[in-house]
Amino acid sequence: MTQIVNWKPYDSIDALAEAACQRVVDAAAKAIAANGAFKLVLAGGTAPVKAYQLLAGKQEDWSKWHIYYGDERCLPVDDAERNSLVAEQKWLDLVAIPKNQIHRIPAELGAEAGAAAYADEVANAGTFDLVLLGMGEDGHTASLFPGHVHNLDELTHAVHNSPKPPSDRVSMSAKALSNTAELIFIVSGAKHDALAAWKNKEDLPVTHLCPATGVDVLLCV
Fold first, then answer.
1. Residue 190 confidence class, pLDDT cut points 50, 70, 90
2. What is the pLDDT of residue 1?
3. Are the C-beta atoms of residues 193 and 137 closer than 8 Å to each other?
4. Do residues 69 and 103 make contact, with C-beta atoms less than 8 angstroms apart?
5. Residues 128/180, Cβ–Cβ less than 8 Å
6. Is the preceding omega at residue 166 within 30 degrees of 0, hence cis?
7. Which domains does the chain have, with CATH numbers?
8. pTM (two decimals)
9. Element (H, E) at 41
10. At 42, is the secondary structure helix, strand, or coil?
């Protein structure tokens, strides 16, 4: 499937964060009205954190929210570099989402065991309502890196030899991340080369995300 991309530039990081936050709130309202629940996949990295901080100040029906993670680093659960720890400190610990509705990736078990365990969570989730992703300078997203080959039918991947430490990670697959009503990339910083390659439809991990509704790229670069 060919990826359909809507580019949405912003003049500042603050404006980007506000827009991302509003998109999450709007998607939640739509999903809860339709299905009684909101299934959201969170991105790691620095770009989405400001949006998470804004969400912490919102008055939402948090009891209906279900949180998943696009990827996680194989580190102890209390390591500051864990995506889950950052999201919890900036947002999730500050609102009333039931703890059993926050689905951490058990990457502390190691890449293979963590991926196998999380595949069950992803399968049980079915179609997500919103997936948030970032993009690295090399065009990677989640822990899907250029040059890495994975089984395309898997819902999760055990990742080794990450070009950025730690080398071992667990990532949702492009297939799983594309199974969503909406997909939003939040991109900031010096990503000009990767963005140019993306716009030229070069073979990068970000180009493998192909939900039926297309992808929106909110960017400030």
1. confident
2. 77
3. yes
4. yes
5. yes
6. yes
7. 5-163+201-215 (3.40.50.1360)
8. 0.97
9. strand 38-42
10. strand
